């Protein structure tokens, strides 16, 4: 079957050559719509998936689809059919339908092959049920509580519950939940932080929600921690590839006593365009509709009365966006929401627990 697919590509070359000799009114197929990647919720077999494919051409093009390089035989297929050029799949099945799809459009003048589109199924497993050990901290110290995200596919959002569900940790300049790692960062522990912390993970595609076992935070009784300069605990990678038109999010958060203030700048102090948004007490910088002129080095600075530290990285530009479609309106594209990753560094060592 793979051979047949390759043979069709060869045909296209011959088809194009032949086209020169004939009536100029006729032309080979040209893409109008090519299929996009899909992430589908796993628990919704009743939903249908549509892989789009449309080409212009005279005579009208005929369409064929391949899955993992093998032509799909639609004769007698009860779950799949082609409408226009679109491939429509009913009664979705993880084993039969996940893979790489490609569409071909052909007429007497030639054949063209589309982009490859990946179909994946989103899922979110449960947390391990084992008990989490207590974290002992001094008042004034910084601490990182690890979420320990279970196996998953599809975009996740994170929140933390303090003591009783649904009493969520409210983020401010002292508390930060990374949407990249799910970890909870407390810049400077205060007395009222003592209690149990539960990580809540949400899959935006499947709508599944899972809760970790609680991590107790307890205070050590051997004195408070003195003041110290900011230690950047969450920061974006050295190089962040960003697709044209996408929304880029950079995370930056520091532990410190007093609680550090976060600010951002670009190298050469190029001002930020007005579209740039800061949120979560400046811990998140968002650049919507990323363009060529937004490339460059971005720096986040964490400062308190004891000193300051900076972290920087380069945003690079990719002209070709690779859109990811999802079947639910609320689901977001992975590349539309590019987060920096956390990278622990520096001393005094923050306590880290899982
Ligand atoms: C297609 O290939 C992928 C990756 O190798 C594999 O996971 C998937 O199961 C394959 N799909 C089918 C329908 O065989
Ligand atoms: C934390 O959880 C433990 C065990 O469930 C419980 O004994 C303790 O009272 C809780 N602590 C707080 C502050 O709620
Ligand atoms: C889960 O995600 C949905 C939307 O994706 C949001 O409305 C909801 O508040 C989230 N829940 C938690 C606990 O994060």
TrEMBL record:
Major localization class: membrane
Domain annotation Ig-like: ranges: 29-120, 125-212, 230-316
Annotated TM spans: none
Subcellular location, record wording: Cell membrane
GO MF entries: cell-cell adhesion mediator activity
Signal peptide extent: 1-18
One GO CC annotation: axon
Top-rank lineage group of the source organism: Eukaryota
GO biological process per UniProt: axon guidance; brain development
Keyword Signal: yes
Alphabetic keyword roster: Cell adhesion, Cell membrane, Disulfide bond, Glycoprotein, Immunoglobulin domain, Lipoprotein, Membrane, Repeat, Signal
PROSITE patterns found in the cross-reference section: IG_LIKE
InterPro entries (alphabetical): Ig-like_dom (IPR007110), Ig-like_dom_sf (IPR036179), Ig-like_fold (IPR013783), Ig_sub (IPR003599), Ig_sub2 (IPR003598)
Quaternary assembly: Interacts with PTPRG.
Record protein name field: Ig-like domain-containing protein
